[in-house]
Amino acid sequence: MSRIIFHIDMDAFFSSIEQLSNPNLRGKPVIVCGDPNSRSVVATASYEARLFGLKSGMPIGKARRLCPHGIYISGNPKKYVYTSVRILGVLRQFTARVEPFSVDEAFLEFEDLSFQEAPGLASMIKQRILREFGLTCSIGIGPNKIVAKMASELNKPDGVTLIEEGKFLDFLGDKDVTALWGIGEKTTIKLRNLGISRVIDLAHFPEPTLRKLFGEYGAYLKMTANGIDDSPIIPYYQGVEPKSIGHERTLPYDTDDRGYLMSTLVRLSEQVARRMRKDGYVGDTVTVKIRYADFTTFTRQKKLADCFERDDILFDTAKRLFLTNFNGDEVRLLGVSVSGLTKKEEILSDPLFQADILHRNCTEAVDSIRDRFGEDSIKRGGSIGTG
Length: 387
Ligand code: DCP
Ligand code: CA
Description:
Elements: E1 4-10, H1 13-21, E2 30-33, E3 42-45, H2 47-50, H3 60-66, E4 71-74, H4 77-92, E5 98-102, E6 105-110, H5 118-133, E7 137-142, H6 145-152, E8 160-162, H7 168-172, H8 185-193, H9 199-203, H10 207-214, H11 216-225, E9 244-255, H12 258-279, E10 281-292, E11 297-308, H13 311-325, E12 331-339, E13 342-343, H14 344-348, H15 351-354, H16 357-373
Parallel strand pairs: 2-4, 7-8
Antiparallel strand pairs: 1-6, 1-7, 2-3, 5-6, 9-12, 10-11, 10-12, 10-13
This protein binds 2'-deoxycytidine-5'-triphosphate (DCP) and calcium ion.
């Protein structure tokens, strides 16, 4: 049996929670926003309000014109996060492999399930969430994260959509490329210039041309358009979060300058590797986080065959992850972290690890110079000028 991924997305999350805690709001157009009297935007609109064209991100003024009789309330983030954590707790009872993806989305992985059994399990999960929280959700089922994520959009609200291996284009081929996960504005413009407007156009486009134009990211685009994705589930659950060591940096200004972004990655990788050595850890999994100027955030992860603690291994992996996933839009924040950590003493006895010792001694010498003279005393070529 191949792996099966579920993407769970709560329906109109914030406004559903408000409707739940106040019965007077049920069945009515409810709009949750920052401050209903200020120039804030709609965080979410109940499905009743969406009938009037309201959607997330719309300025309140416009929303009030479209739906003057709507009930505008200011959000209560604590309540939403609390509900979110409790929902994750319930999802965890179905599988240990749960990856929270946003405040109201999560990926679940099942390794011992068939596609025939999957919709039944999805209904059980939906019933359970409805019974315990009074909330509905939509579930997408697919052979990987991209397919599951896009499937969950297809029958919202309160739907279950299954897309089996090889059927991605039957479901999504006719959609606009902007519907694909991770495609930003700049990429869309470039694709349009190539005459690509639908997902299927991109899926069938010659890869060499995409690579020429987008580099590694071109190959990622083509794979995404074909519903191919081997990114792993990153399990997390409050209390048993796998330990990780990481650094992230909000850039002084939003930028799409690859040179600058790359040197920031070098710097972050060096800092992380240094902390690992200082705390006595080696790790085998690298995660890169890219937050774009519009706050959409992507985390991408790679598990290596062996444990490492070296800057260069960390940086090479982080760089590859970045180049494969960077969509060319302006970036606001970058992060690098390492998980799959093991205390170094535990594997020092392993003969394979001995081969690494020479390099490690050298790196330790560099660390001790930095300890004495500061972070900037020795720099790798690429990180000079990162500020
Ligand atoms: N949210 C926000 N600002 C946005 C988008 C979303 O504050 N621009 C918040 C409010 C949402 C929650 O995040 O309730 C989840 O976002 P979704 O995009 O999943 O939207 P909903 O859950 O509201 O609706 P849907 O039923 O389409 O998933
Ligand atoms: Ca949602």
